[in-house]
Amino acid sequence: MFKKLVWIAILLFIATNGLLVLLDHEGKVNRTAYITEWEAVDEKDLYEKIGTSGVVAYTEEHYIYFDDSAGSFQAFLVEEGSTINTGDPLYSYRVDSYFETENLLQNELATLNGEISAIEDAITEMASYQIPKPSEPVIRSDDEDNQSVTVVEQSDPIEAELLKEQYLIEKESELSAKKDQAKSIQSQLEDLHTTGDTVTVESPYEGKIKAVSTTLDDPVIIIEDTRLQVKGELEEADRKLVEPGLEVEIEIADLDKDFKGIIKSVGDSPVNEVTVNQGSNYPFEVSFDEEEALDAVLPGYHTDLEIIQNQSLQAATVNKNLVFNNHVWKLTDEGKVEKELIETGIEMGNDVELTSGINPGDFLLTENINVDYAGAPFIAPFNYRKAPWLNLVDGKQWTEFFVTGIISR
């Protein structure tokens, strides 16, 4: 009978305490959270990538023409498949009128020199332009009563710097091409002044002779630029997200090697015929990083591309299962469990970026708990195997040190 009364008393005690905790809406009963699993917030580099494919190709083709009204064609000075450098002779012709040809070449040279000056001015102006530092968002009222406002975000300085760099690269390339063309015209003028009736046309480009038109149909010579790039197509949804300057990871399966690149250009017009029932594809070009060794890469190699559309370096990162709606449970240095409201950023696999409220090194619960435990102290089981003093001596050598200690006494 006595044992029965003891068990009844125990059950009443447990039930009474449980009821008190359950009905304690004013927090008069102290709660303690018992936790068994938690994880530290990592610091990782996260990326948002767009996967697509492409093919390696020469960067461009250059076309060389012959104006039969300027004179009589004499001979080709190159063959198909031959490699040429800037300034190498391509073909020669005999002029019909010395003065007309001289005037024509001088006008062409003057036009090129004007274009060169304009490009140099543009490069100087852009190189001296300072990207504004990021500033606070501008709050603008949208009506007279100030009942609604619009937050006007400032432009991203990193994106602006990439666009500036890309612009300078393109202009430097354009300037180099114009100077080579001017040098070719200048050489033709010198030939004319020396011979009086014969002009040798030199190449303003370096590359490989793709075709020679023996029938003199224009273009009489096609020169392939032997620099390599990757060409591909983007679907409509991806076209909206890709712009020049974005970094690209290039994988060539045949070589089992990865390369770095950058989006060189993105087309505004679809490559396929526009129809209502079919999606549109847009062309894009990727230039290889200048430091990449491309000796083993050939035109026609197919590639897998990862376009880095967004990135966050050294981001506070956790497993997405630790985020419960818009909050996480943080273990504080004061020994309490706090409900922290957070904002998330990039998701990559099972990882998610925490853009506010949490820092790398913080500890978070792996399970969601009742909101009543917010601010409550916590306790955790003690794992004696992880006790710091056990690391002072290797477990395999403790007997050796023990015996040495006794002998020394």
Automatic annotation (TrEMBL):
InterPro entries from the UniProt entry: Beta-barrel_YknX, MdtA-like_C, UPF0194_transport
Annotated keywords: Coiled coil
Places the protein is found: Cell envelope
Residue span(s) of domain Multidrug resistance protein MdtA-like C-terminal permuted SH3: 318-369
Superkingdom of this protein's organism: Bacteria
YknX-like beta-barrel domain residues: 228-307
Pfam families documented for this protein: Beta-barrel_YknX (PF25990), RND-MFP_C (PF25967)
Protein name: HlyD family secretion protein
Phylogenetic placement of the source organism: Bacteria, Bacillati, Bacillota, Bacilli, Bacillales
